[in-house]
Design a protein that fits this description.
It is built from 18 helices and 13 strands. It has about 425 residues and is α/β, with parallel strands linked by helices. The protein folds into 2 domains: about 150 residues, Rossmann fold, CATH 3.40.50.2300; about 250 residues, P-loop containing nucleotide triphosphate hydrolases (Rossmann fold), CATH 3.40.50.300.
Length: about 425
């Protein structure tokens, strides 16, 4: 479906909004159909229902996956799995590139109750069988767009499955490399795993995440933390800065003489809309005491604890255990040993560390100052180039995605 040409002023505004990852870059409805007859039926329904910012294309689910790797996911999506030998597997592949919260309807040529149930378990909203009719498609589209707007309980299970993960990255002491781990993890997930990622630096006075990625801060994080009632998707889009194609940064550099009064409801109000738009919300968590830290750890589905081989770091890891212990069923702790080997023989051994802190070390990042300093001076991520640090960040990303655990099971399978 072709869209009218925008006037120059509106086109410029849309381009600027797209650079921020705004709503102008996101379609309301997108459909990919494998045959001409189905494509024409859906195209006619889109015209009759006067759906704005929508498009209908020819192609199977493979083309959908390739398409969504370069553009934002629509609010509602229709995909065709006709002829696919493993349609459920293809849907899982689609989920890896599709943004959280998207309403998905699958079209197929198999009238199979078992397939329908498996697709629903995979998180899609509906499955319809060819040949398509205008009345069927219009009814499905109406329900799908209503569900995508959150007006019906139909998508409760799908929304739950498709919500992004909040990943809290926290160092056990200053200088342990928390920001380095957070920024490089975010960059790797966005650029090497084609995930849509939000990087939030909650240290609004001394945070370095934006500096590490050489992006200019847009402002607005302070308002988010002090007045959570103002938070919505549009406000967050304007407050975030795009770094590359899929990485969005929310940070601040506030004046030191003006205190910030964080509202107790700020963190839930911040993370709820972000989880609907991003696969991962990577949070660089400053070391603070009290309710803020506890609230942050409770909100995170994955808590990454960055430590090093020093007595100070081990002591503070033990002190911080109360915030990480007894995770809920949907939470995980990942311990990252950063700057491994920095002190040579003076380093405390990993075995002694694990025995003392009572937690296993999941990922080890070697001390490699050459690549770290070069990247910091250039304002780029270390993971833009191959090297020992990049390999370790890849291991950490695999821990988040679950790939390393899958490989272990296959080895012993």
């Amino acid at each position: 479906m072709s869209m009218p040409t925008l006037p120059i002023a509106k086109r410029a505004a849309a381009t600027a909004d797209q650079a921020r990852g705004g709503t102008a870059a996101r379609e309301r409805f997108t459909a990919f159909l494998a045959d001409e007859a189905s494509e024409q039926v859906v195209r006619q329904c889109v015209l009759e229902m006067a759906l704005p910012n929508s498009s209908v294309h020819r192609g199977n689910i493979g083309k959908v996956i390739a398409h969504l790797q370069s553009v934002r996911s629509p609010t509602a999506l229709m995909v065709d799995v006709s002829g696919s030998e493993l349609p459920v597997t293809e849907i899982h592949k689609l989920a890896e590139v599709c943004e959280p919260g998207v309403s998905v309807v699958v079209v197929g040529d198999r009238n199979d109750v078992g397939l329908y149930r498996n697709l629903i378990r995979a998180g899609v909203n509906d499955y319809i069988v060819k040949p398509l009719t205008r009345s069927l498609v219009q009814n499905v589209l109406s329900a799908q767009l209503e569900a995508a707007g959150g007006a019906t309980p139909q998508t409760a299970s799908f929304s739950h499955q498709k919500l992004g993960s909040v990943v809290a990255v926290m160092g056990t002491r200053g200088g342990v490399g928390t920001t380095t781990v957070a920024t490089n993890l975010a960059w790797y997930l966005a650029n090497n795993e084609t995930r849509r990622v939000a990087l939030v630096d909650l240290d609004i006075f001394f945070g370095d995440a934006a500096l590490a990625l050489n992006v200019k801060i847009a402002g607005g994080l302070r308002e988010v933390l002090e007045n959570p009632t103002r938070i919505d998707e549009l406000y967050l889009e304007r407050a975030m800065v795009l770094s590359g194609k899929r990485l969005y940064v929310l940070a601040a550099e506030e004046r030191l003489d003006i205190p910030v009064k964080i509202d107790p409801e700020a963190l839930p109000a911040l993370f709820d809309p972000l989880r609907k738009q991003y696969h991962y919300v990577i949070v660089d968590v400053p070391r603070q005491s009290g309710s803020f830290l506890q609230q942050m750890m409770d909100a995170a589905s994955i808590r990454v604890i960055v430590t090093d081989q020093t007595a100070h770091s081990i002591r503070d890891t033990v002190r911080l255990r109360r915030f990480f212990d007894a995770p809920q069923a949907n939470q995980r702790n990942i311990v990252v040993l950063n700057r491994a080997g920095e002190l040579g023989k003076a380093d405390i051994s990993p075995k002694m560390m694990t025995d003392t802190i009572g937690m296993p070390i999941d990922v080890t990042i070697p001390y490699h100052p050459k690549s770290i300093i070069a990247a910091a001076n250039a304002g780029t991520a270390v993971t833009e180039a191959k090297g020992p640090v990049t390999s370790a960040i890849q291991d950490l990303a695999s821990e988040l995605i679950g790939r390393r655990e899958t490989k272990r099971r296959r080895l012993f399978g």
